[in-house]
Amino acid sequence: MGAAIRVVPNKAARAVNLLRTVQYTHPPSCPCHSNPGHHHNHVAPAVNRFADRTSRRSYATPQDSSQLKEYAFEMAASSIRFGPGSTGEVGMDLTNMQAKRVCVVTDETVDKLDAMRQVREALTREGLDFRVFNKTRVEPKDYSIKEAIEWVKPYNPDTFLAVGGGSVIDTAKLMNLYTCYPDADFMDFVNAPLGKGRPIDRKLLPLIAIPTTAGTGSETTGTAIFDLASRRAKTGVAHRNLKPTLGICDPLNTRTMPAAVKASSGLDVLCHSLESWTAIPFNERVPRPKNPLLRPAYQGANPISDIFSLSALRSTVKYLPRSVRDPDDMEAQSQMLLAATLAGVGFGNAGVHLCHGGFESLLIIVLSAVT
Question: What backbone torsions phi and psi does residue 312 show, to the nearest 5 degrees?
């Protein structure tokens, strides 16, 4: 048998062998091809708006954990019941929650309206023990909220019920918070940098919110806004544990709003929906939280918040002029209340722009000047 003949590889074969050797002994350092999230000829993702903003790593310098971008978002909103006449069910809701002592929070104007009459009748019918705090201030200040907190402490309720606009609901949220943290300093939970921004790490008491305006969407959010008088600044507390347990949205409760109030609260819906829809995408935020508990209530626009924000924006454009012109247009009144709630879900998770407070006030001033 003759000896085997060794075939000398040509230049092409030697080049292929060399490339294969490099490939398996030295993984590619190209940022695209070494990125496990990179795929050629892939199907375009369903959410292109966010897919094209994925985090990019720098391979030339060490990673700084404080600069890692967010990669996830959470959706949090209250349970919502929507329908004319649903206010009358609140007594049964409180009984179902096994409430024994209910703190009802409202203001002096709403206390005289049909919404509070229905609430009193519903709670009395169920035999519930309740007390009413009706000294809530419109556009609450830190000192008015502290007064409300001091008022409620001796009563020691096990449930809260807020009946009114955003100022009432936000005041009730903070009364609930500091009832559950009786030893906390008031500034502990206030948003940084004005406050310490302490996270709410325990479950609060049940809170039912019944809005009587179609604007703030506070019945769905974990945010409570107030003026810090000493600093002449608008701030608040924001955490998903602050959100109401249930929001009862009854269009019959917004019928008596004056035209100017309907217009200004409707502009609130417009600002909330537009700003949350155009907010920074959630995966552009830094830093990435080290613990899910530290993920803020306002996380940036995301695919779910966009749905709520855009729907609210479209409804506001369509129904706000009608609701202001004709108080008997129940379709417009109902749709604006629904839009306020949808916008609340949107901005309650995505957040709004830095200019929100000032822009909103400017619109209201302009509106007042032309009406």
Answer: -65, -40
What would the two tokens of residue 346 be? Answer: 């949107």
Q: Are 346 and 271 in contact (CB under 8 A)?
A: no
For CA atoms 93, 97, 99, 105, the dihedral sign is negative
Write out pLDDT tens, residues 28-76.
444 333 433 334 344 444 456 666 554 454 455 556 767 899 999 998 8
Closest CA to 241 of 224, 217, 216: 224
- The answer to whether residues 127 and 174 touch, using CB atoms and an 8 Å cutoff, is no
Helix axes 259-277, 303-325, angle to 10 degrees: 160
pLDDT, tens digit, 9 for 90 and up, residues 263-291: 999 999 999 999 999 999 999 999 899 88
Whether 243 contacts 78, CB under 8 Å: yes
Could you tell me the two tokens for 238? Answer: 């924001």
Token couple for 106: 């409202």
- Structure tokens belonging to residue 271: 């600002």
pLDDT tens readout for residues 318-329: 999 999 999 899
Give the separation between CA 39 and CA 34, rounded to whole angstroms: 10
DSSP state of 187: G
- Angstrom distance (rounded) from CA 30 to CA 32: 5
Q: Nearest CA to 224 among 162, 284, 181?
A: 162
